[in-house]
Amino acid sequence: MATTATRTLPTTAGRGVFARVLVGIDGSEQALEAARQAAILQDVEGRLTLLSAWDLAPSIIGGTGTGVPYYYDETIQKGHSENALLAAREYVAPYTAPIGKLTRGTAWDQLLREIERDEDTLVAVGSSGLGRLRGIVEGSVATELIHKAPCSILVARQAGDGFPQRIVVGVDGSPQSAAAYAVADYLAQRFEAQLTTVAAAHDDTLDEPAGALVTASENADIVIVGSRGLHGLKALGSVSERVAHRAKCSALVVREPIWQRVARGDVT
Known about the structure:
Number of helices: 9
Strand content: 15-25%
């Protein structure tokens, strides 16, 4: 049975998630909101990188007429990404001075490569609004990152100017949920936000804790869950994946990258 509880144990153990933040930029309003939220959450001494990826359409897509279709036009595609990156940098300028990177390739693949290369601790993207099943079928960037990113993932949805003032976190007694709680508590202290804890018993089905978290976060700014590090098909049924797709607010999936554990001496 899922229950709710209030915050009782303060900690600042969650700050490492926001040390090196990467945001996927594609020219959409959702991406701008992801950049804004990432800039707000970024630690004071942290670093924010905006990455815009461009590519040409696969050769299986055809075109008609004598002109080059826009999806085959390198100048148009690259220019679109350049403009999107410039707009995002201006958008977050009131919060921070980000690093801007332009790259060629599939968005989710380039984001994963950048995470590994720069040892990022959080990747943020805007929600496509596809939902879980359509995201799996159509391969949305958020879905790919939830399944494959080696660090924490923020799926951003529209939030007010006071973001984040209402935080919901899911716990189930696992080490992963303890890490999620540490992050939630760190943010609650840092932003003087309200924090609600949703506890799930070990015998709960996947739908019950996921549903309880989605319901509890209906009026929240962000819902935070831990990740058991499942990838590929195993991740399709995870609570974190369900919450990230079904929540009405932004969703943060906490996943500690191996380079943080190495730095701590937990992994040699």
